[in-house]
Amino acid sequence: MSLVVIKTKTDRALDILLYTVLTMAGLVTLFPFYYVIIMSVTPIIEVLKNGGFVLMPSKFTLVAYKAIFQSALVPRALQITAIITIVGTACNLLVTTLLAYPLSKKWLPGRNIVLMMIVFTLIFTGGMIPTYLVVKQTGLLNSIWALIIPSVVSTFNLLIMKSFFESLSEEIQDAAKIDGCNDMQALYHIVLPLCKPILATLMLFYGVTHWNEFFNGIMYMSDPKNYPLQVVLRNMLQQPQISQELLALNPEARVELPPETLRMALVVVSTLPMLVIYPFIQKHFTKGMMLGAIKG
Predict the structure, then answer these.
(1) pTM to 2 decimals?
(2) Which ranges carry the ABC transmembrane type-1 domain (predicted)?
(3) How many CA atoms lie within 13 A of 42 on its CB side?
């Protein structure tokens, strides 16, 4: 028997008001990105005619994107960022899983001491200068590993995965051990197939962090050839007068492509991949966050 909900005029008015507010909030949120896309594909002549503000151009051009990908700087930075994101996320998931799984076992000797040490790093850190000195002494400067190894595990993500492991049934794992599986085999064959939601969640967390790598790129990279994409974008936004020089554009292209158009196009290039990936793991992301928060 289905329950029929009868709404009064007040309820319907509140629904209309709520949807109106949510629609306006969505438009306000999406407008900056829409404006960036429009400015990146609008010819400079039309931009100048409209006083630098265009909502719906009559003509479109992809010259800015062509110039960006034909330059030597941006494709190299995009490649470095992609490598950091893929390799770094894989290392993050591997280390986080191998550390969270044993810590989820209450019978593990010294478990509480290790957890206290891990939580301590969540509250107190070594500091920027000691971390830089460690990276320097280990010879990681100007290497992509400097953007991966120092952040190979996140305490927050580790605790989320530990809580997820604790929410799984111990009986299933015990049954696997009775059938002859050791701990690693039980983890690989039994536990990990049940962990798709939390793995997708942490993959998103780690992946977005690596893709947006900015501060460590400035700290540990002194060679412009090793800059990740976000550092290149920062340099172009901070120094618009040298944007064209950074891309090594020829004089004709510099006239057609002002720094503003180049920066807008690069913002789109640096943002679009994460926007494309997110919808595919969004359902796992929501489930993983809920399940990972069941226990502390």
Answers:
(1) 0.79
(2) 78-281
(3) 25
